[in-house]
Amino acid sequence: MSSDPPREVYLDHHATTPVDDRVLQEMKPFFTEHYGNPASKANHSYGHRANNRMEQARETVADAIGARAGGEPVAKSIIFTSGATESDNLAIRGLAQHAKKTDIGTHIITSEIEHEAILEPCKILEDKGFEVTYLPVDEYGQVDPEDVAAAIRDETFLISIMAANNEIGTINPIKEIGKIASDYEDLWFHTDAVQAIGAVNIDVQGMGIDLMSISGHKIYGPKGIGALYVNLKTKGKLEPLLVGGGHESGKRSGTPNVPGIVGLGKAIELAVENREERVTHIEMLRDRLWEQLLAEIDNIELNGHPEERLPNNLNVSFPTVNVRELVRMSLTDHGVMAALGSACSSGEDTSHVLEAISDDKDRIEGAVRFGLGKDLTTDDIDYVADTVVEEVNLTESLF
Ligand SMILES: *Cc1c(COP(=O)(O)O)cnc(C)c1O
Asked: Of 3.10.50.40, 3.20.20.140, 3.40.640.10, 3.40.190.10, which CATH number belongs to 23-273?
């Protein structure tokens, strides 16, 4: 970076989000005042207080995702973790251990466009004798429920399909897949809903979801906290990855991250509370950006589904532009922060998600992800559009 840009606009909200001030304010006392260990709840009031607040957050999370019985949140279905990477690992490896031990099965169905936190555990299981089917997706990045149904075998014990993709924003038909899974005994349905929370309505019971991964820092909460939802009939089957003091009803040992848990509770509460209003605002900004880019740039393509996509996602390809230079130099110099592919797979040469939806090398290599946030304004978006148009057309003229 040469000099400080005149203005900074952050457009990488799929990688992480800022902590909402309302979330931070809720968390603060749990660092310095109510710092007791929840496991000491029987010993003194500090422990008791921390534990109470943690259990309240557990109810909030359960309630926000529709985990209810008789109208009341089923708090016991929430296991707090260090983030969605751990939640994904716990769901897949925890059930795989059980399936192996009890001879339930050795086959997993997932998709080609999952996050690495799903794909890597699957690879490890393949080395241990499990079989994994990686379903292809259509040109928009959607999994076809009929493909899921056709891939089920006697040995299948787990289907793991993400609710929404973190690179191209495509939303999957989760309810249809959940319905298919529910017709079978000993077949669990897990979904990584990290990007979908707060963007689409998630109702674990209505959607037939048995397990679901959530992360704090993708929904204006803190980093290093997440949760795995697991319905009570499945919870007994889940083998823990971390053992020790038996926290989280034996499913995840380790002193709970109380401030993080409080923050996750507040973040998910805010995410579902004003969802429609926020979604409308972000969609308006996203469409405004797309329309301006489309009007001013000749060679541009939309990646992902035109309608079934996250409101804050705009993934576009500039096939005639060196986007590495565009994103890392030109846009950065102007304070516009976007991403190449996905931040989590920045080690990859090309995105496995874009490769799953296209054979066109220029399109795959020319992709830029704009991940919008709730606090952006039309002014920010117009500045981004002007900057991108100017820089893209400048780079193109060099050809
Ligand atoms: C960010 C992300 C994760 C990982 O979440 P962490 O809390 O950072 O571990 C998993 N899945 C998806 C889809 C993500 O976007």
From this structure: 3.40.640.10
